[in-house]
Amino acid sequence: FSITDEALDYLTDICNGDVRSALNALELAAYSLHGRSVIELQEIRQAFDNRTNSISTTDFYDITSAFCKSMRAGHSDGALYWMARMLDSGVDPLYIARRIVVHSCEDVGLANPHALQVAMAAKQAVEFLGMPECRIPLAEAVIYVCESPKSNSAYKGIAAALEAVRTHQAYPVPEPIRDGSRTYINPIDHPGSKLDYLPEPLKDARFYKPQNSGVEAKIYARHEERKKL
What we know:
Helices cover 59% and strands 2% of the residues. By secondary structure, it is mainly α. Strands 1-2 form a two-stranded parallel sheet. The protein starts with a strand and ends with a helix.
């Protein structure tokens, strides 16, 4: 067999220094020739398209980390590149969809609550379409998460609440908000009514701290006004 300069240049670039990967691609390309003896660019490209997952365990976690941190930073190009690396190496697209769902809540959160809807829709599209078509809704969701304003207040809020639960005794529920309470006052029907919604030792705790970002900026402003009262 022989190989064209164009195909060889592509092979040396795409194998990323992994000789085993290059030899496997050459072997697949040779088997695809069906009587011909010259390996051309199209055969090498096809051989790499047919390879199975070639990401090592270390690379897998590093690339996943790069993908997630690119989304958090709002770097759409970086996120798309690292996602493409995973998809091209055979990573389950559902795994990628789950990461997008997580970051739609953890990093975007209340700054743009629609991000979770877009991420969940992408997850459903992955299940409905499969590869290669599902790469498109995945890309749409990734870009949406990247370009959205960011807030991790929900992530921090539940972390702080869990920390309080684990570091304090299990306090009883205040009587007015117990099931069947006769002293409960509906705050919707009676605006301005005062009830204790936290146990007495935690009455001054503030787990949720809104951030001045995106849609959540309205909540932030309302909380700031309350502080002045």
